[in-house]
Amino acid sequence: MLQTLSTASSLWNPSQRSACLEIVEFQRSQLSSLSPCPFYLKFGSKSVQKGRALVSGTFPYACQRPKQYPAGKKPGEYPQNMDLPPLLPKKKKKPYPIPFKEIQKAARKDKKLAERGIEKPLQPPKNGLLVPELIPVAYEVLDAWKLLIKGLAQLLYVIPVYGCSECSEVHVAHSGHNIQDCKGPSSSKRRGLHSWVKGSINDILIPIESYHLYDPFGRRIKHETRFDYDRIPAVVELCIQAGVDIPEYPSRRRTNPIRMIGKKIIDRGGYVEEPKPWRAVDPSSSSIIDLDTCGACERFPPPSPEDVPIIAQETMNAHETVQTGVTKLMKKYTVKACGYCSEVHVGPWGHNAKLCGEFKHQWRDGKHGWQDATVSEVFPPNYVWHVQDPKGPPMRSALKRYYGKAPAVIELCMQAGAQVPRRYKPMMRLDIIVPESEEASLVA
C-alpha cells in the first residue's frame, strides 16, 4: 500500500506549493481480514496546517472499502420479499437440473472407458449397495411421512380447504377467493372465476406415485407388464430403496456390487424371482395403509380444540423433516422424472410404460422423456395464496399483486397455530399491508 502512495507522490509537481499529500498508514493485521483489494485512492478537498500557513486543496488519501453483500445474500438473513419460481410452459420440455454439457461430458468419459474395456467405477448406491449413513435418514423420513399424513387428516376437520373443480387451484380459508385466474375448460363462461368445492388431503399433499421395484437393477418395466407392479408414494419407494424394510414391499439387498462397462451391466448377481405383490395379503390388516393418503380423514378422529396448535406444529416439523430428508436421499439415490408430465420413477433408469400424454407424445409413442428429477417433483410444494385473515372478505383480482403465496401444508399449519419457518416468510409477504380497493388505485 505504501508503494502505491509513494508512486503517486513521485508524480506530484513540487512547484505546486498549495497542495500536499496525506499518507494514512494501516496496521498489517487489518490487511488479512479484508478483501483482496481493501484500499483505494480517494481525492477530496481538505485544509492542512503546514508550518505557519494553512494550505487548502485537493489531496489523495487511502480509504478502506466497506464489505458489501449482494441484495438478500447477507449471511443468516432472507430477502424482504421473494417471487415464486416461474411456471414452466406445458408445450415445452422441462429444463435439465444438471447442465446438458456436463451430461454429455460424463457420457463421453464413459464411452472412452467402454471402448478400452475398462469397468465403470461405481460407488454406493450406484453399484447396488446401500449407503449405511443414509439408512437412519430413510427411517426418519418414513416416520415423518406417516406423521404428516396423520396431522393433515386431523387439521382438515378444523381448517376448511377448497379446490377448484375445473383446474388445480387450491385455497385454504373459510371461503374461496375471487381472483380470476381459472384456466379450466369452462372458465370463459365464469369470466375466470373458480368453481369451488370442498377439498381433501390430496389437494394439500399432492400424491406422486411410483412403481415399486423389488430389484431396481433388474428387468425394466414394460408396457405389457405394468400391472404386475404396485404403485406406492414416491417418497415411500425412495425410503425403501435407501434401506427401510417393509414386509409388504420387499426389496433386494445386495452383498456384492454390480459391474458395468459403459451402459451395459456385465455382472448383476443374476436375476431373482420377484415376490408376488402385496395384493395377495389383506391390506386392511397391514400397516401399509398409514403410508397412503387414501382414506386418511376417515382413519383419524377430529382433534380437540386445545390440541390443534400442538398438532399443527408437529405437522409443520414433519413436513420440514420430509423435505430435508428427501433432499439428502436424492443426492445419492437416482430418481428419474418425465420432462413432459408429472411421472416419477425411483431407480437408475426409467420404465418403458407408454403412459405419457403430454406435449408431442405421438413422436415418442407415449414413452416418457426421462431425466434427473428435482425435489419439487418428488415432493411438490403446491403453492397457494397466503390469507392474512381467513375469516375476512375474499381475495380480489384488483389486489393480486399485494398477496403472497406459501406451500399448502405451511399455510394450513399456520392458520392452525404453528410457527412459520423463516425461509417461507419472504414469499408470503408478511410485511406488506393490503390496501383497500379505493386506495389501490392511488398506489404508484
TrEMBL record:
<feature type="region of interest" description="Disordered">
    <location>
        <begin position="70"/>
        <end position="94"/>
    </location>
</feature>
<dbReference type="Pfam" id="PF05634">
    <property type="entry name" value="APO_RNA-bind"/>
</dbReference>
<feature type="domain" description="APO">
    <location>
        <begin position="337"/>
        <end position="422"/>
    </location>
</feature>
<feature type="domain" description="APO">
    <location>
        <begin position="163"/>
        <end position="248"/>
    </location>
</feature>
<protein>
    <recommendedName>
        <fullName>APO domain-containing protein</fullName>
    </recommendedName>
</protein>
<dbReference type="InterPro" id="IPR023342">
    <property type="entry name" value="APO_dom"/>
</dbReference>
